[in-house]
Design a protein that fits this description.
Elements (H helix, E strand, L loop, with lengths): L1 H22 L4 E3 L2 E10 L2 E11 L6 E7 L11 E9 L9 E10 L8 E5 L4 E5 L21
Parallel strand pairs: 4-6, 5-7
Antiparallel strand pairs: 1-5, 2-3, 3-6, 4-5, 7-8
Amino acid sequence: MRTSLCVFVVSVMCCWAAETALCSRAESAIVTRIDTVTVEMKHGKLTIRVAGMARTPSAFGRAGKLRRRNQDLQTNKEGLLEYDLVFNRPQNYSGFTLKPVNASLKESRVPAGVKGVRIFAEFNQVDEMLPEPKKKKGFSLFHKKRGDSE
């Protein structure tokens, strides 16, 4: 009984220590600059892809995350949704090496009247407007093309 209790306590302590080590993350920080933003609306979902640069010692760059500036799903005065591009900053890094940070987001709850997005970084911001919807041409088997004559 005493041995099993001791084993149980040790295993719980090991699991607790491992969980704290795995769940502890560096503080997220806003990227240095935004390079490109692409936005498209398909089937009522807004898809945003962002590429930026941030100070990090990573060899291949880092994954970023788009964080909403306005949590109540409202657009600003220009009809744009506002986001910050953030990433998990490594602790105790004070170098100047800029590496790429990429993020993408699919937003299913899009308010009416959205014209585009505005992504903020430390030194710049980028506005990207939604593309104009393409006009659909009607399909008719018996309709003549313009310019055709008999």
